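Model it.
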Amino acid sequence: MKIHLSFLWVIFLAIAYFSHALKTFLILFGLLLIHEMAHVFTAKLMHYETGKLNIYPFGYSCEIRHLKHGKSYEEIMIVLAGLGMHLCFPLLFELAYRWDLISYSYLIYLNELNHAIFFFNCLPIYPLDGGRILDALLHFFLPYQKARKLTLIISFLVITLMLVFRVFRFPNMLLIVLFLYYQLYHHFNEMPQDLLEFYFFRYQHPFMTKKNRRRSSYLYRNKAVDKIHDQLIQKEEVWLKQMFSKFK
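Modeled.
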């Protein structure tokens, strides 16, 4: 697994060192690494390929190829694996306290930090874990492109409302907000390319079912479709085969 370390992470590390917060900074990133590795381990169990591990000042992001193109329930399970780690961390903190590695006040602080990370990740903002769960749930009901677009719109509205009501009050939180806005802008811009990648993924991994086929002009992530194309009704695997045969 390749690792990409953001230069900003080094700056934040230096700030933590000179502000005597290095211990907390390293513990925080240790927790986030366990969280991310839980995603990766579960993805591997479900036969997803993983790519580069990005290290940002605010956490980690491992590339799990085609996670957003596979079945929604698989993505939800992978996301919940990472969130579930935060239910185990208080036990680790308690053991560290009993072994005299940390003080009682620091135990309380770590639990509060863990709760903050958990609830922040649960926000319905893409690409946070809560936003990914929202996106996966919308795909049960809407075509692929419409579900993704609605996810990004909801994410934008949630961030904006939290700014209006001053939920993000601290300077470091404002940096995270700017980062999330940038991520949404990036995902909006890549929607046409993402749709083509979804089509190609579906072409390589046909939705194998003879039941519950939906007649539609759009492909769904969790349903097979009898595709309406050029006023003809075709099974999606036939339509996609014709579509990608043009590029050979």
